[in-house]
Amino acid sequence: MARQTSDLQGRVQAAHQFDEGALLRYVRANVEGFPSKLLKFTVAQVRERQPPLMRSSCLSFPAPHPTLFGHGQSNPTFLLEAVGEGRSGTLVNRYVLRKKPPGEILQSAHAIEREFQVLKALGAHTDVPVPKVFCLCPDPSIIGTPFYIMEYLEGRIFLDSSLPGLAPETRRAVYEATAKTLAALHRVNVDSIGLGKLGRRENYCKRQVERWERQYLLSTGEEKPVRNPRMQDLAGWLKQHIPLEDYSASAGTGLVHGDFRIDNLVFHPTEYEVIGVIDWELSTLGNQMCDVAYSTLHFIMDITLSAESRGGLQTEGIPLQAEYLADYCKAAGRPWPMENWKFYIAFSLFRIAAIYAGVYHRWTMGNASGGERAQHTGKQANRFIDIALEFIRLAHVLPDQPPSVSGRLQNHFHEESRSQSSSKGSGNFVPTQKVLELRDKLLLFMEKHIYPMESEFYQLAQSNRRWTIHPEEERLKELAKKEGLWNLWIPLDSAVRARKLLLDNTLKTAARNERLLGAGLSNLEYGYICEIMGRSVWAPQIFNCGPPDTGNMEVLLRYGNKEQQKEWLVPLLEGNIRSGFAMTEPRVASSDATNIECSIRREGNFYVINGTKWWTSGAMDPRCRLLIVMGKTDFNAPRHKQQSMILVDAEAPGVLIRRPLLVFGFDDAPHGHAEISFDNVRVPVENILLGEGRGFEIAQGRLGPGRLHHCMRLVGAAERGMQLMVQRALGRRVFGKTIAEQGSFLSDLAKCRVELEATRLLVLEAADQLDRLGNKKARGTIAMAKVSAPNMALRVLDMAMQVHGAAGLSSDTVLSHLWATARSLRIADGPDEVHLGTIAKLELQRAKL
Ligand SMILES: Cc1cc2nc3c(=O)[nH]c(=O)nc-3n(C[C@H](O)[C@H](O)[C@H](O)COP(=O)(O)OP(=O)(O)OC[C@H]3O[C@@H](n4cnc5c(N)ncnc54)[C@H](O)[C@@H]3O)c2cc1C
């Protein structure tokens, strides 16, 4: 719950009492506008409150430092109330006084003068909301220590960062205002407002690590509280991981608040707008990302809790850490800090641990201003150290790109389409409202659930349990179903057919039926959606939109009879099983499918299958139950009537998985690409699809829309490459400049964008033609998209890898895997030459007309 600033006052504690008469004399002489006819003058101490407890919720952590309104352990703060007589009656003027604490204090930790200087400069020259300051009294003889007096702000302070009692949308507004205020503070040009000499900007983290390590050593050991050796491990790690950007006074350095968090902000009494940033005693110049990381610590405090489990409705509306960070980066014009985020968070925890250890030491000596509460700070310091060390060990601490918060779209092409659609409602490729809504939902799902899991999925796929399924994959599938992001690939006409065949008797309820049959999107509409899934190699299967299942489901939807659909299509639509498509053979050139040799021979009520297939994608997956096998039922029929397709139970006797094949060393576990032998595999005659000799016909149907999906995903993969490339270029310095400032990079980047947009338009055009003209008439444009998409994606991803240097070739980023997948699609989706042949043939035909 928010507290009114006026709620937070109490009686002046004995240890903090001073000569109020001397103060009044000083105030009368130095505070502008102080009532001349004074009726009453009172001094109340701003109460030190119990900080939010460290709870299982990750949204609260104990405040390590004071705020103006008192939950801290540092500068005592007082509310002065002057009741006077004015022309229009009684006046009540309120002021706030901040002073140094009495007794021995930590080096430079209570810099009243600094607070005053910063507040004065910001108030006079910037739009950063701060209370107005009236006077600084450096003379300790007045009230025992130096102090300053500032304006009292009537407003609200949110003490608990989980914002209990607020509606979800207002919680979001509070966080957005917080991020924007921090950005405003970081945008201040300190040189132009006289704060240029407040501190050194370069080597801030290095100096801070050394300083807080020193401070920790001063507060612990020998006759002081016990020293935790893990603190030195942490300091050692930090010293080895100081970000390169810290070494110079470049972009990203400037004014640092030093204690920026929601409860150091005064919000407007009724609006969700910050009217004052308070508690500036740790402000200085330096690396501003430290402020940013510190302001997100409440997201980190329980790093084992997922977004879902952190409080349900109570935290609804609170953004994820990445969303808050994206708001900040956007408002501050800063690159996404993925590369060094681990350092900044670990450093923030380290610093708090050192501060807490200092408070605890002071408590043992009897002069901590937090009273008895300070007795716990020693334990809390150790907890911060543990959390920091635990955090350092995490493989993935931030998505590798900023999320699109509040439905904002990530790339300018889409932003443009959206504004076009809302302003004019027309245009060649303007996504419909339905698509825009689905796409926003999908973008959020990717950011919340897929990107954060990538590295864990990848680790499992490299371990000796590589051919098992990560439990999170199944959980996310259920979540995708609930969110209506399931089977979106199903074209409207196929869904209509399935609805007729499957209605009621197979799928229990109409609602469930509908959920399994997608959202009724056209191929063009799906193009906008599928592209986003293509940004992660792990995403498509989470939404039941991954190859080869989509192609196989399409075959069953179009060509399967009712029984075949019941047995195989329904579990595939449910996502309960997976499937493979076995056409390619090692012994023959399979881009020409008339070459295949696998035999499907009828014997009574069975077909007997003999042959070897390879590159059957998905067949290694432990959930794979169905193989659609293409073979020959009649070796003497006309060339295109010899082939048939048959449904084979992957566990039927005689089906032998021989080995997984590798693509540039990636085996794509847990789905894999298998070499399989079929040795006298007996399959009931009912399993033949459409009838003997219809295999080629089915292949044409399967390879139409299904293969365009690859192109859509490739556009998404290239988009991901662009984003990673730009982030890296903005954040990494070579030879004195960021990569983004190097001329050669700029033209390469622009060329990538040009190619990407051209290919995206081609893919959308192909999808549109598929909808309007059908598979056959659209084949020229589809072929163009198939040639263009992988080649474009390869160039963009190659450039992205180049910008990443050696890291780009490693598996530390997704780039090399995306590149390997794109490269395989110049063959796996039919070799380029075959598509080029189609395009050229059509071109020549046109010339002959
Ligand atoms: C990662 C991956 C996944 C795959 N998944 C599957 C799957 O699930 N199911 C499946 O059945 N298959 C799958 N394949 C196999 C893929 O479909 C075939 O590799 C592809 O059809 C080419 O067949 P091929 O390898 O026999 O090459 P070939 O037919 O031997 O062709 C070799 C080369 O000959 C040249 N060429 C071919 N045709 C022409 C032409 N008309 N003009 C000029 N040059 C030409 C091209 O350079 C071509 O690359 C996959 C392949 C990969 C790499």
From TrEMBL:
<keyword id="KW-0285">Flavoprotein</keyword>
<dbReference type="Pfam" id="PF00441">
    <property type="entry name" value="Acyl-CoA_dh_1"/>
</dbReference>
<dbReference type="InterPro" id="IPR041726">
    <property type="entry name" value="ACAD10_11_N"/>
</dbReference>
<dbReference type="Pfam" id="PF02771">
    <property type="entry name" value="Acyl-CoA_dh_N"/>
</dbReference>
<keyword id="KW-0472">Membrane</keyword>
<dbReference type="InterPro" id="IPR050741">
    <property type="entry name" value="Acyl-CoA_dehydrogenase"/>
</dbReference>
<comment type="subunit">
    <text>Homodimer.</text>
</comment>
<dbReference type="GO" id="GO:0033539">
    <property type="term" value="P:fatty acid beta-oxidation using acyl-CoA dehydrogenase"/>
</dbReference>
<dbReference type="Pfam" id="PF01636">
    <property type="entry name" value="APH"/>
</dbReference>
<dbReference type="GO" id="GO:0050660">
    <property type="term" value="F:flavin adenine dinucleotide binding"/>
</dbReference>
<dbReference type="InterPro" id="IPR009100">
    <property type="entry name" value="AcylCoA_DH/oxidase_NM_dom_sf"/>
</dbReference>
<keyword id="KW-0274">FAD</keyword>
<dbReference type="Pfam" id="PF02770">
    <property type="entry name" value="Acyl-CoA_dh_M"/>
</dbReference>
<feature type="region of interest" description="Disordered">
    <location>
        <begin position="406"/>
        <end position="429"/>
    </location>
</feature>
<comment type="similarity">
    <text>Belongs to the acyl-CoA dehydrogenase family.</text>
</comment>
<feature type="domain" description="Acyl-CoA oxidase/dehydrogenase middle">
    <location>
        <begin position="580"/>
        <end position="681"/>
    </location>
</feature>
<keyword id="KW-0276">Fatty acid metabolism</keyword>
<dbReference type="GO" id="GO:0005777">
    <property type="term" value="C:peroxisome"/>
</dbReference>
<protein>
    <recommendedName>
        <fullName>Acyl-CoA dehydrogenase family member 11</fullName>
    </recommendedName>
</protein>
<comment type="pathway">
    <text>Lipid metabolism; fatty acid beta-oxidation.</text>
</comment>
<feature type="domain" description="Aminoglycoside phosphotransferase">
    <location>
        <begin position="68"/>
        <end position="304"/>
    </location>
</feature>
<keyword id="KW-0443">Lipid metabolism</keyword>
<dbReference type="GO" id="GO:0003995">
    <property type="term" value="F:acyl-CoA dehydrogenase activity"/>
</dbReference>
<dbReference type="InterPro" id="IPR011009">
    <property type="entry name" value="Kinase-like_dom_sf"/>
</dbReference>
<dbReference type="GO" id="GO:0031966">
    <property type="term" value="C:mitochondrial membrane"/>
</dbReference>
<dbReference type="InterPro" id="IPR002575">
    <property type="entry name" value="Aminoglycoside_PTrfase"/>
</dbReference>
<dbReference type="InterPro" id="IPR036250">
    <property type="entry name" value="AcylCo_DH-like_C"/>
</dbReference>
<dbReference type="InterPro" id="IPR009075">
    <property type="entry name" value="AcylCo_DH/oxidase_C"/>
</dbReference>
<dbReference type="InterPro" id="IPR006091">
    <property type="entry name" value="Acyl-CoA_Oxase/DH_mid-dom"/>
</dbReference>
<keyword id="KW-0576">Peroxisome</keyword>
<comment type="function">
    <text>Acyl-CoA dehydrogenase, that exhibits maximal activity towards saturated C22-CoA. Probably participates in beta-oxydation and energy production but could also play a role in the metabolism of specific fatty acids to control fatty acids composition of cellular lipids in brain.</text>
</comment>
<keyword id="KW-0560">Oxidoreductase</keyword>
<feature type="domain" description="Acyl-CoA dehydrogenase/oxidase C-terminal">
    <location>
        <begin position="693"/>
        <end position="841"/>
    </location>
</feature>
<dbReference type="InterPro" id="IPR046373">
    <property type="entry name" value="Acyl-CoA_Oxase/DH_mid-dom_sf"/>
</dbReference>
<dbReference type="InterPro" id="IPR013786">
    <property type="entry name" value="AcylCoA_DH/ox_N"/>
</dbReference>
<feature type="domain" description="Acyl-CoA dehydrogenase/oxidase N-terminal">
    <location>
        <begin position="514"/>
        <end position="575"/>
    </location>
</feature>
<dbReference type="InterPro" id="IPR037069">
    <property type="entry name" value="AcylCoA_DH/ox_N_sf"/>
</dbReference>
